[in-house]
Amino acid sequence: MKILPIKILILIVFPSLLFAQSIETSPYSAFGLGDSKYLGPAESVSMGGLNSVFWDNVHVNPTNPASYSFLSLTTYSLGTQGRYTQLETSTDSESNSYVGLNHLLIGIPMGKWGAAMGFMPTSSTGYSLNSTDTQHDSELELFDENGEMIYDGIYDNIYSFNGFGGVNRAFLGLSYSPFKGFSMGVNANYQFGNISRSVRMFTPAVLADLDGDVNTPDDVLFEGSQYGTKEEEKLRIKDWQFDMGLLYTGKLNEKLQYTLGATYGLGNESELEYTKYLYTFKFVSNGVEQPIDTLHYVSGTSKLDDISVPSRGSAGISIGNYSKWMIGANYEFKDPIDLTFGTEGYKVSFKQSKKYSVGGYFTPKYNSLMSYWERITYRAGFKYEEMGVSINGTDIVDYSVNFGFGLPVGNGASNISIGGAFGTRGTTDNDLIKENYFNFVVAFSLSDKWFKKVKYY
Q1: DSSP 301-337
Q2: Fewer CB atoms inside 10 Å of the end CB: C or N, the chain?
Q3: What is the pTM assigned to this prediction?
Q4: Cα separation of 398 and 384, whole Å?
Q5: Residue 450, Cβ neighbours under 10 Å: how many?
Q6: Which run of H or of E encompasses 295?
Q7: How far is 417 from 407, CA to CA, in rounded Å?
Q8: How far apart are CA 118 and CA 171, in angstroms?
Q9: H/E element holding 385?
Q10: What are the CA-CA distances from residue 231 to residues 115, 163, 166, 250 (Å)?
Q11: Residue 146 has what DSSP assignment?
Q12: pLDDT (tens digit, 9 = 90+) per residue, 266-295?
């Protein structure tokens, strides 16, 4: 396979994918730094997320940098992802979708060493939510001359929450295998991105229909004339982050292999540029906001404890006849990030997130000369995730059934991986939102051997 056309293809396709990223449309992206975007290699995601133990010689796995030493061919990988979501509340429903970049990777074998570099979206934020806070003020109660109540003193404060943006990751990784079957590695990640969030509160004119009543005191008409308030926050995130990984693979007997894997990511405080702007406003024609008065403004660069990148880690095990089948299990955790701006209308608490994955693959006959279908790798798995956030006293969980296919191209070193997941996140209890979703990822892995000598006869 010629590499030059592949390079040209990547240079053409990658910029269009990068700048065509769709905005995330999940209400759960309002919490922390947004919704996680890169969940692992397409091959691993198809098996539920066996990120810490997934390796082979023609796929790059940046979630465990120790895997680079197992590469035997230089590999380019370009992936896209998409999501279709059906949102449900106790009274209503709607749907949305997006398609965007999943990753751009290159892995390079170097004997006992291995290296990789790449780019992928880390998280994204995109939501528009409304909530109502009902208030009762007994001093506003109104009675007619007969003692009959004409206004009960109850009114609503309406909150609107909006956010968009995301965080991206560029990385350089290196691994080393001191002896056969064992490898250790590290990734240096540079994370960068922008997130904008806003909270708007206003009180509708609940007493407008009483304005013509001569018995209505003027001082109870404030709801119809007071200004709304809005707070906007813009974050620009820039920080370095390091991941470490270990892998060991050995034989139980002549037919069975096993792999043990583990990763750990160091937490650190993120440097960010931020702007906060609090002001009053009123609505003019067509519902447009007109700012009235600035109440508070702050801008600068700082390291904030509540924006620290959390520590995280994983561990897993797999067993199988790797040229034909494999089954495995994986566990991941991430410490909480306490970033609550934009969620003031909800009771939110954070805790450690946990994800459990089981899955595997089956290849009928990887070297079959007679049947292409026997050379296809069939993958499946299951994921259960405690997202690490509690809203209105309810813990949010995410679970999915995953599947996928590995389609060999040409001589089999290059391939196309297609994966999907049917899942559910959240619940309609306690005024929350339930997401029924379908995720898909398509990855093109193009492999060849560098520095090979070309002979002419």
Answers
A1: EEE-GGGPBPPEEEEEEEEE-TTTEEEEEEEEEE---
A2: C
A3: 0.81
A4: 6
A5: 10
A6: strand 289-303
A7: 6
A8: 6
A9: strand 377-391
A10: 45, 12, 19, 57
A11: T
A12: 877 666 677 888 888 887 777 678 888 888
